[in-house]
Amino acid sequence: MDKQDRRRRPTISDVAAAAGVSPKTVSRVINNEPGVRAELADQVLEVISKLGFRRNTMASSLRSGRQTATIGLIIEDLANPFYSTIAAAVANVARTHDTQLITVSSEEDPDLEQRQFLQLCQRRVDGMIIVPAGSDHSYTRSEVEMGMRMVFLDRPPSGILADSVVIDNAAGARAGIMSLLEDGHRRIGVVIDSPIIYTARERLAGVRSALADAGIPYDDALVEVGVTNPDEAAHAIATMLDGVDPPTAFFTGNNRSTIGAIQELYRRDSDAALLGFDDFELATLMPRPLTVIAYDVQELGRAAALRLFERIGGDTSWPSETVIPTHLVQRGVQLLKS
Amino acid sequence: MDKQDRRRRPTISDVAAAAGVSPKTVSRVINNEPGVRAELADQVLEVISKLGFRRNTMASSLRSGRQTATIGLIIEDLANPFYSTIAAAVANVARTHDTQLITVSSEEDPDLEQRQFLQLCQRRVDGMIIVPAGSDHSYTRSEVEMGMRMVFLDRPPSGILADSVVIDNAAGARAGIMSLLEDGHRRIGVVIDSPIIYTARERLAGVRSALADAGIPYDDALVEVGVTNPDEAAHAIATMLDGVDPPTAFFTGNNRSTIGAIQELYRRDSDAALLGFDDFELATLMPRPLTVIAYDVQELGRAAALRLFERIGGDTSWPSETVIPTHLVQRGVQLLKS
DNA sequence: GGCTCATAAGACAACGTTGTCAACGACGGG
DNA sequence: CCCGTCGTTGACAACGTTGTCTTATGAGCC
After folding, report:
1. Domain annotation for chain A: domains and CATH numbers
2. Helix (H/G/I), strand (E/B), else coil: B21
3. Choosing a second label site near A126 at 20 to 30 A (CA), which of A57, A107, A266, B259?
4. Touching check for B87 and chain A: CB below 8 Å?
5. pLDDT in tens, B78-111
């Protein structure tokens, strides 16, 4: 280790030379191909472990043209529990296919998303799951034509026909609002992200549909759009509560907004009802009651990964859209005592 | 697209033929090597974009022997916020080095950890960050000798000398316990994972050190080890509270146990003090007061990644151990109203 | 014994790219 | 006008592996 601390990695030829056989024979052994005497194979295996030989995956898949046993996942932010749950589910499916996962963050930047996409193409991943940040994905078309498999997650693709897995956003929001209406609420404050975003748009559509069915006019003063973090949500809630004829219930369009709403409602000891899209860890310990529109986040990732591996396995059927259902769940720490 | 829906991916030779130049010239263009007339380079670039050529990363790094611009991260479970925060931090550092991250879960299984490690070696990643599940890492030695760079995260390596980044577990626990002692607590219940696990062992050592300094005998009846989930923690807390001379304060060794403790203490309206290792999202909304031993999880990942890239950059200094400091923070939703 | 045939092993080329070196024309100095 | 030099470009081989084809060996059969 003093004069040569960085040994060269042994290659198939090194193994072959040390074992007194041809490189091809070593190749046969490491690939479990038939046509090698058991005795000789053992001998080769011994040399392999003695030299610490590891087949170079890159050379192997370059030559054989087979799969690279890698898939890509493009998400907005790995630190966000929603995305990390998806990543974990995808990785689990990948592992059952002996495939490794390259996860990259787009940081909600369409340009970065595209660059990451192309880099993954250059690595010749077998397929990709993408949670779109941008709104135009026609740039993927030429790659898809050249065989890249893609599944869109959480938001449908645009500018290209491809598989997608999405939540039943509109129906979930609609069901939630209908339950508020059944409880007698007539003024419902809505706090939601910008309708530029697919999920926000769909959820808002669900809200409007439920209100329309109940014959309740849509009141712009009770809808705050473009809310992206807890503080903005808290502020929006405060403003509505301070207005004339304040809402008796709130709908928050994602869990970040729900957190902000809980903070503000708790601070004021308000007993307004709260309905939030997305369940979240520790919702059961929140200091006030709330209802969440829940769905199986793992299933979202799992379904996308399964679809992707079907494609990789050779499925060439027409692109499908998988819709993950939602359901309403009561949350809040008060339930612990009942 | 009807008869040949899967076009072959163009290679450098295809581009060369279409542009009427040699493959080497195309290579020079895509690598920004000098020695190509600007006019000719433009012409080549045009053909490249027309054909949708993407350099094959595998062939490139196979031939050039340069870095693969990939690093590996082996963690226990990507769905766990602690690990996903680390993964995000590592990915962020990686991106500044134009490197992509392959994240794999060991599922706390030493065998799987080793298999994943070897697979990453076969992919010739430039380096790896590993949160050890197993307790013996001598199996990495031959790879390290052949140039694999490794940084151990959250737990130090054993059986091999390598860089590591860990939390100041003992000092953090010690400081927390000392603060409970200052508040007058003399009977402190301890709920912690198995001491087989490095972090649990260190934290328990911190607890014992603080108690010893205060002259308080270590009472086995007040220490429950081997607790791995919230329910077990809640049960352990309940048992201690139901015993004779119950504790007036509890220390929980990680955030899962802390959650369980909160549930049980809230259920009973107990006003026992609670001190938990690990901060967590939404700790500010917990329905009772608690103190957490907090540290910068992102920094943990960031430090490990920075160290790894120093190694990849050629640093051959003696392995270092980076220790991330901790500090005490008050949490609980009651703070919102003050 | 000569034949076929199956089996085992190796020779060789190729995957897509790039390092090395040679070839070419243009240019300027002696 | 020749020669060395520079700037461009290409030919060729090689990275580590594997697909294809060939060769060597011996068993089995008439």
Report:
1. 12-55 (1.10.260.40), 70-167+297-324 (3.40.50.2300), 169-294 (3.40.50.2300)
2. coil
3. A107
4. yes
5. 999 999 999 999 999 999 999 999 999 999 999 9
